[in-house]
Design a protein that fits this description.
Elements: H1 2-7, H2 21-38, H3 47-59, E1 69-73, H4 79-86, E2 91-96, H5 99-111, E3 118-121, E4 140-146, H6 148-153, H7 159-172, E5 174-184, H8 189-196, E6 200-206, E7 210-213, E8 216-220, E9 222-228
Parallel strand pairs: 1-2, 1-4, 2-3, 4-5
Antiparallel strand pairs: 5-9, 6-9, 7-8
Helix pairs in contact: 2-5
The structure holds S-adenosylmethionine.
Length: 230
């Protein structure tokens, strides 16, 4: 493990509490309360515009139809799935390891009239932590990640093992014709390409903008779309 970490020189940022489940549970506990009290859906990571740009690209993609299955990894408050549902996509799943995120996303979706979106608790990198998550035993046409690989990369200690497990999870839930979209602020395009290059080929970079994450301002959002290598 130690030698593996030594070759993992790509992480040029420190770990943070944003890499812990405790942080997210506590954040979503507050967001559940806020939603109940004042109807605030909470944070949309990297902003609404970034989310809409990702959804725009898939909406305009002729190879993707409204009946295709879509999963959002680390779905948080569920807004990505809700946006997709508003655009007419029908078979949506959001998975997050925080049960409170699932509670929040179900409440937000219900308030929008979209109780047909499936939100499920599941851990992308540890099979033991929660009960087996059946949504991670299925395969999807479209696999989305906005900010979740970033959060996993911030785990205290050696994040490489976790990131490799994440990579395996993503591959396992894809078919040859599937698409994988990752939106990140901690990793540059080159770093993402380097990490995913063995199994994935780049199809498209979605235009980015600047924003705030983990106390740092002015970071750049990188949105890449991949397909599995054939
Ligand atoms: C930066 S937030 C992004 C939330 C949402 N995707 C968005 O764009 O608004 C990261 C999310 O990943 C979830 N997460 C982090 N590690 C995870 C893991 N190992 N398995 C599942 N979800 C995870 C967190 O609970 C949190 O909801």
């Amino acid at each position: 493990m130690a030698s593996e970490k030594e070759t993992d020189t790509d992480r040029d940022f420190d770990s943070s509490e944003l890499g812990t489940k405790e942080y997210w549970d506590s954040a979503y506990e507050k967001e559940v309360e806020n939603f109940e009290d004042i109807g605030d859906v909470g944070e949309i990571w990297f902003g609404e515009e970034t989310m809409e740009k990702v959804v725009d690209w898939f909406e305009d993609n002729e190879d993707i139809c409204k009946e295709d299955t879509i999963i959002d990894l680390g779905s948080g408050n569920g807004m990505m799935c809700i946006e997709l549902r508003k655009r007419g996509f029908l078979h949506l799943t959001g998975v997050d390891y925080s049960e409170l995120a699932i509670t929040l996303s179900k409440s937000v979706a219900k308030s929008e009239g979209f109780e047909d979106i499936e939100f499920v608790a599941g851990d992308l990198i540890t099979e033991e932590r929660l009960n087996p998550c059946t949504c991670l035993t299925r395969q999807y046409k479209l696999v989305l990640d906005k900010g979740t690989y970033d959060a996993i990369s911030l785990m205290p200690g050696d994040s490489l093992v976790a990131r490799k497990q994440y990579l395996k999870t993503v591959k396992d839930i894809m078919r040859p014709e599937s698409w994988f979209s990752i939106t990140s602020c901690n990793w540059t395009k080159d770093q993402l390409l380097d990490f995913f290059k063995e199994d994935f080929q780049l199809v498209k970079q979605i235009p980015f903008r600047t924003f705030q994450f983990g106390g740092q301002t002015g970071s750049t959002v990188t949105s890449l779309v991949f397909k599995l290598k054939t």
